[in-house]
Amino acid sequence: MTDKQPVAPENCQTMADVRTGVDAVDRELIALLARRFGYMDAAARIKAERDAVRDEPRKAQVLANVRRAADDAGISADLAAQLWEILVEDSIAYELVQWDGLRG
């Protein structure tokens, strides 16, 4: 990875500019994922019952929110929903492990 500051996509002049920008966004996404999983830690701590970890109505709400946000951003809602399906399922699995670890 490079220390070069990324330029906005519309200002990219070279593939090096594009790659620097993509790498910077990837680092931001990883930081956001780490923050999101911090909320899974909090949920595991707060939820009194293990059965509460899997909340299908909440999952449906999250996926609907993502579809709307993707539409609003002008990107594929189907792709966003596919990515979030994986993210939510992995988040549930992670939260179950954390929940068990706190009470085991």
Structure characterization notes:
GO terms for molecular function: chorismate mutase activity. It comes from Sphingorhabdus arenilitoris. It is built from three helices and no strands. The model has no long low-confidence stretch (mean pLDDT 96). It has 104 residues and is an all-alpha fold. It has a single domain (9-103), classed as Chorismate Mutase Domain, subunit A (Up-down Bundle), CATH 1.20.59.10. The radius of gyration is 18 Å and the shape is elongated. Helix 2 runs antiparallel to helix 3 (77-103). It has helices at 15-46, 56-73, 77-103. 74% of the residues lie in helices and 0% in strands.
The span between the termini is: 40 Å
CATH class: Mainly Alpha
Apparent shape: elongated
Poorly predicted tracts of residues: none
Percent of residues in helices comes to over 70%
The domain tally reads 1
User: Using DSSP, what is the number of strands?
Assistant: 0
Predict the CATH topology. Chorismate Mutase Domain, subunit A
Outline of the structure:
The chain is an all-alpha fold and 104 residues long. The protein is 74% helix and 0% strand. The protein is built from 3 helices and no strands.
Keywords:
104 residues; elongated; 74% helix; mainly alpha
